[in-house]
Amino acid sequence: MIDKTDIGIEIINALYDGDLDRVDEIISGGIRSLDEITPKENWSWLHKALLGFGHTKMPSKSVKYLIDKNIAINAQDVYGMTPLHYAMRASNADAAIVLLEAGADPNIPNRDGLRPLSMVGYTKERLDVLELMLQKGGNVHHIMGDGTGRTILESREPDESSPQWKIDIYEMMKRYA
């Protein structure tokens, strides 16, 4: 008997390998569907693909493939996390860019008030991600979800000992404030 979990792992592995023909082949077998949402976590295949386990990052072509299969890019899981939250947490700048270009919203808060825009430190070496978030409507005036009452911009204000990447992030955010 074919195990659905094993098939799911095979799909994720093919996505990580960028072997989209293999994904199509597996799906055509009819045991699993790209429309599936996990009942407990409320994860789509896009969520699962971007969870960020290990050191390997989901290739952007696999993210685009899933988006092209009409998987909702702003869907929130049980934690309120969107695929963009997971791409940011996994430091997957290329995936974040694909999501943003497809219409992912950088302002959606998770259940703790964390927004993808406030997670830019995970991609600090890629200011193009921050710039695209801001161009796509990222609002630096949203209140952080950390209970301090500070805005995202205020939370990024550097001090005299801040590394250059923190200064660069703050300066870019100020330009869009």
From TrEMBL:
It comes from the Bacteria. Pfam families: Ank_2. SUPFAM superfamilies: Ankyrin repeat. The keyword Repeat applies. InterPro entries: Ank_repeat_dom-contain_49 (IPR051637), Ankyrin_rpt (IPR002110), Ankyrin_rpt-contain_sf (IPR036770). Keywords: ANK repeat, Repeat. ANK repeats lie at residues 79-111. The keyword Repeat applies. PANTHER family: CYCLIN-DEPENDENT KINASE INHIBITOR 2C-RELATED, POLY [ADP-RIBOSE] POLYMERASE TANKYRASE. This is Ankyrin repeat domain-containing protein. It comes from Moraxella nonliquefaciens. The lineage of its organism: Bacteria, Pseudomonadati, Pseudomonadota, Gammaproteobacteria, Moraxellales.
